Amino acid sequence: MNQDQVKTILLEVEDCSSPFTVVFSGKENKKVNGLYKPDTAEILLHNRNFDSDNQLLYTALHEYAHHLHYIRRGGLQQARPHTQEFWALFHGLVQKAQSKGLYKNIFETEPEFIDLTKTIKENCLLANGEIMLEFGRLLAKASDLCKAHKARFEDYIERVLGLPRATATAAVNAVAIGLDPGMGWDSLRYVAGIHDPEERGKAIEALSSGASPAAVKGILRSAEAGQDPADRLFKEKERIEKTIRNLSERLEEIERKLAEI
Fold it and tell me: What is the pTM of this model?
């Protein structure tokens, strides 16, 4: 597979009107497999790092996701390149490539991975989810007891059990909603915190398809991806200006306090 073929595949996975180039370094690099240069819209791949075209394509999709993310963010570089929005975008590209027969998912084709995944989901994620749902049911009973004795449930959670309130709330909510324990505790906790039923349903659907909670957060925010870059930049400008105003007010308050000392 050469540079032109890689670019053709990337555009087949998802078209992009903003130009970019794919460059093979012709070298092996022990630190990274590839990188994206936003200033020149160049996807650089250290092609001698890979044993197969499939491995190379995975990295190409990763760097292409950086290009698409950069364009959708109005050409602004992010403080953290690997945000939830980025991971949702990248995982979506991998799934598209797989569905079109352009990329082979080793996790779903290699028997060892298939067996190991089944064991982890059944013996760990399911068991973990069932334990946490039982935990939620017991906490609900504790809440009822606190009400009967006019005691503070929060006090019981924090001083007796030594738990964060957020953990207890998520466990109780997960039981009340009736979530599937097979999702595992991390996913249960995330979904239990979503108040909007429609958004919660979308999250459950995405998690069931194999997305992580972090990726789902990016998916649920994907509506922003369709925004005009100028609109996104304007909103970002407003957000930064508000932050500056708040920090300036805080700084003035601190300076007044210092002057009084």
Answer: 0.77
Provide DSSP, 108-153.
HH-HHHHHHHHHHIIIIIHHHHHHHHHHHHHHHHHHHHHHHTT--H
Burial of 110-147, coded b for 16+ CB within 10 Å and e otherwise, reads: eeeeeeeeeeeeeeebbebbeebbebbeebeebbeebe
The per-residue pLDDT for range 37-49, each reduced to its tens digit, is 999 999 999 999 9
For 29, residues 6+ apart whose C-beta sits below 8 A from its C-beta are 46, 49
pLDDT interval class at 227 (50, 70, 90): low
Write down the CATH number for the domain with range 3-104.
3.30.2010.10
Task: Map out the domains of the chain as residue ranges.
Answer: 3-104, 111-224, 228-260
CA distances from 205 to 52, 119, 199 (A): 33, 22, 10
CB atoms within 10 A of CB 55: 14
**Alpha carbon distance 105, 93 (integer Å):** 12
